[in-house]
Structure formats: structure tokens, C-alpha cells
UniProtKB/TrEMBL annotation:
SMART domains: PYNP_C. Keywords: Glycosyltransferase, Metal-binding, Transferase. Gene3D superfamilies: Nucleoside phosphorylase/phosphoribosyltransferase catalytic domain, Pyrimidine nucleoside phosphorylase-like, C-terminal domain, Transferase, Pyrimidine Nucleoside Phosphorylase, Chain C. Belongs to the thymidine/pyrimidine-nucleoside phosphorylase family. The lineage of its organism: Bacteria, Bacillati, Bacillota, Clostridia, Eubacteriales. One of its GO terms (biological process) is pyrimidine nucleobase metabolic process. Its EC number is 2.4.2.2. Residues 345-419 form the Pyrimidine nucleoside phosphorylase C-terminal domain. Homodimer. This is Pyrimidine-nucleoside phosphorylase. It comes from Clostridium cylindrosporum DSM 605. Its cofactor is K(+).
Length: 438
């Protein structure tokens, strides 16, 4: 078998066999296939596409390029969730403790942020002492002891994906549906959970900009997961405005704590309840979404979810006092109000521009070596549907380095669209994809 023949076959639009795909993944991972040939095949895939059988073969080849986490030592049906990335997306931080408090074991491997979308691991590291680099034994023991653990993905999980993604990033082959789906699902399958709920973002702050593209990606990932023996549900959700009000690492953890205290933003709570209900359904703890939702609301009301978060923080070396007293989080030295020059109703907030503003303030990474400022970020004061007067504040910027402050302020202003007519916010949950309705 020769890689040049595989490249030619895909360039002509033919489907690749499982063996041909495995040959490519094995060869590129071990270095016998060079970057220039891998790039050629990725470009052929980008233009010619892959069918679902090819995409499943690609995913499983990437899974088998590294270690698979064995979670059989954890009692019960283990559940996980994954978001395709958005602005202000702190859902995992409040959702995990809610689901664990409701009785389902949550074993979650998470990643770091890059660009304008934040990572769960970065956010949790704003808690003093918090350890996210856990051994597999620690990870499993923590779930058995407190019902939940969130840990960073290791380089031994799907190493082929890491290598291929770096190549896609520099060859303009990132935004291909099959390559995206295989990248996400290879890590989820290798992470070992029995059931996974996917949050596929759509809109200005998401990778998928249209409902059709997001729905197709959701279907592709559900198909891959089910083909690999996982129980899958995917929600297509709106990212045409940021989730909640806080964007930035410690700011988002504080807002997640607010949710667990029963006083968080309505959209963050609603999405947590929706995803959490499906996670509980996959765990077989409840027979209906309404029962699962009721249980999640009860663990917020009786503070069991908040207690579960504190238990997870403590067992992973973090200071649980941060959860009881968010004033302990590191604060930015400076703040700046962004003032509206218009009067009317907020029609739209460009999430990507808000994320870029937070990035300029130091809350994100321009590249993998960037150092994050945990205290920097943006707090929205006005959201879609709100009325704003000229001279009124629409957002508050938190920063330590003033070098990009004016550019960040301009990005916030450009993100807001104001109209004279009253506006109703768009739906948050746009579609739900299961194996039965694809």
C-alpha cells in the first residue's frame, strides 16, 4: 500500500477503505508519512469529503493511535458532555456537579482554550491549588469517591488527532465536517464514558455559522458515537450572543457558582438543565426528561449541587473556600465601562467580537504558548432584547494590561446592533439529534 495511491484515490472522489485510512493514520503518527503527503490527503478530503463509514473509520483509527481510558472501575453508567466551543460557555462547570448530585457518575476529560473560545481546564485553574492534570487512577478514584472528576486530556489520548489538527491549522483544512467530527469524537470515545451529550454551537460565536451546518455536524457525530457503541444525544444551540453575562476565566467560574446558588443567568441555567436532563436519561437514572429536570432543579435548591462542586474542588487540591466566597478570586486592577452611543433595543450581539475583545484583554490564547490572565475579561450589562439609552453602559471590561484596551472597547461597540423596534431573543435550543431522528 502506498500513500500516493491513497491520495490519488481520494482526489478522484472515491471512498477510502478502513485499511487505507488506518495505513494513513499509523504512518503519519509514527512519522513514516511526511507532512507534505499528509497535507495532500487532507486537502483531497477537504474538497471531496468523506462518507459516514469513512468518517467512522478515521475516528476509530485516531482513537487506536493512543490510549483508551478504561472506566470499568467506576460503578454505573458514566456520562460526559462536550461543547464545540462558544463565548461565555461555562456550562460544564455548573452542569457536572448538578448531574453528579442527581446520582449519575460524571467522568469528564476537558481541553484548554485557543483563540476566542475559552477552555474548561483554564477556567477551573483560576481556583487556587486546583489540579487538573490527574493520573488515570486519580481520575477514576475521584469519580468513585465524590461522583465527579474533571481532568485535562493527556497527550496519550488520540495523539494522531493532535498531530493532524496542527497540520490542518496551517493548511486551511480545519473546517471540513468529517475532519471536525472525527477530531471531536476520537477524544470522546477514547475518554471512556458510556454516554455523551454533545452541545453543537451555531452562530456568530461558534465554529458552525448556520443551522444547516451545525445540524449536519451533530448528525455526523451522533452517528460516529453510536457506531462506536456509545449512547449519544446532540443539542444544536444558539451562539448568536454569549452565554450568560461573564466572559473570562475566573469571571465565568463565578457565574457558574451563581447558577449553583440558584441565582445565575437564565440562559446558562436553561442550557445546563437541558443538557443535564439528557445526561441523566443516558445514565438510566430517570425515565423521562421532566423527572430528570425536576431532580436537577431540586439539587440546586437544596445546595447539593454546590456541595458536589466543593467536594470535587477539594479532592483535586483546590481551595473550596473560593466556592463559598468568590471574592477570593484574583481581581483585575482596572475596569472600564463601554458606553452606548445609541438608543433602542439590543437586536444582536456578535459573540465572536465579544470573544475577541476578551482575548485582547488577556483572557484567551493567541497561540498555545500564550499566558492567560485569569482575572481579565468582559461582563455584559445589556443583552439581546434589553433597552439601552445613549450614554448608558453596555459592558464592563476587566484588565491589568492597558495596551489593547481601546481596541477591545471598539470591538465591544461594534458587536452591538441596536434597533428602534422591540426585540424578542432567539431560541436557545434549536434542535435535538438522537439516533432515532437522524
Amino acid at each position: 500500500m502506498r500513500i500516493s495511491d491513497i491520495i490519488l484515490k481520494k482526489r478522484k472522489g472515491y471512498s477510502l477503505s478502513k485499511e487505507e485510512i488506518e495505513f494513513f493514520i499509523d504512518g503519519y503518527t509514527n512519522g513514516s508519512i511526511p507532512d507534505y503527503q499528509a497535507s495532500a490527503l487532507l486537502m483531497a478530503i477537504f474538497f471531496r469529503g468523506m462518507d459516514r463509514e469513512e468518517t467512522l473509520s478515521l475516528t476509530m483509527a485516531m482513537v487506536n493511535s493512543g490510549n483508551r481510558i478504561d472506566l470499568s472501575g467506576i460503578k454505573g453508567i458514566k456520562v460526559d458532555k462536550h461543547s464545540t466551543g462558544g463565548v461565555g460557555d461555562k456550562i460544564s462547570i455548573c452542569l457536572g456537579p448538578m448531574v453528579a448530585a442527581a446520582g449519575a457518575p460524571v467522568a469528564k476529560m476537558s481541553g484548554r482554550g485557543l483563540g476566542h473560545t475559552g477552555g474548561t481546564i483554564d477556567k477551573l485553574e483560576s481556583i487556587n491549588g486546583m489540579r487538573l492534570n490527574l493520573t488515570q487512577e486519580e481520575f477514576i478514584n475521584n469519580v468513585n469517591e465524590v461522583g465527579i472528576s474533571i481532568a485535562s486530556q493527556t497527550g496519550k489520548i488520540a495523539p494522531a488527532d493532535k498531530k493532524i489538527y496542527a497540520l490542518r491549522d496551517v493548511t486551511a483544512t480545519v473546517d471540513n465536517l468529517s475532519l471536525i467530527a472525527a477530531s471531536v469524537m476520537s477524544k470522546k470515545i477514547a475518554s471512556g464514558a458510556d454516554g455523551v451529550v454533545l452541545d453543537v454551537k451555531m452562530g456568530s460565536g461558534a465554529f458552525m455559522k448556520t443551522i444547516d451546518d451545525a445540524t449536519e455536524l451533530a448528525k455526523e457525530m451522533v452517528s460516529i458515537g453510536e457506531g462506536a457503541g456509545k449512547h449519544m444525544v446532540a443539542l444544536v444551540t444558539n451562539m448568536d450572543e454569549p452565554l450568560g453575562y461573564n466572559i473570562g476565566n475566573s469571571l465565568e467560574v463565578i457565574e457558574a457558582i451563581d447558577v449553583l446558588n440558584g441565582k445565575g443567568p437564565e440562559d446558562v441555567l436553561e442550557l445546563s438543565l437541558e443538557i443535564g436532563s439528557y445526561m441523566l436519561l443516558l445514565s438510566k437514572k430517570f425515565n423521562s426528561l421532566s423527572e430528570a429536570r425536576e431532580k436537577l432543579l431540586s439539587v440546586i435548591e437544596n445546595k447539593q449541587a454546590l456541595l458536589k462542586f466543593k467536594e470535587m474542588v477539594k479532592i483535586q487540591g483546590g481551595d473550596p473556600e473560593f466556592i463559598d466566597n468568590p471574592e477570593l478570586f484574583k481581581k483585575a486592577k482596572n475596569t472600564l465601562k463601554v458606553i452606548s452611543s445609541n438608543t433602542g433595543y439590543i437586536k444582536h450581539i456578535d459573540s465572536e467580537e465579544i470573544g475577541r475583545a476578551a482575548l485582547l484583554l488577556g483572557a484567551g490564547r493567541e497561540n498555545k504558548d500564550s499566558i492567560i490572565d485569569m482575572s481579565a475579561g468582559v461582563k455584559l450589562i445589556k443583552k439581546v432584547g434589553n433597552f439601552v439609552s445613549e450614554g448608558e453602559a453596555i459592558a464592563l471590561l476587566y484588565y491589568n494590561d492597558s495596551g489593547n484596551i481601546e481596541e477591545a472597547r471598539e470591538k465591544i461597540l461594534s458587536a452591538y446592533t441596536v434597533t428602534e423596534k422591540k426585540v424578542t431573543p432567539s431560541k436557545l435550543i434549536l434542535d435535538v439529534i438522537t439516533k432515532d431522528n437522524m
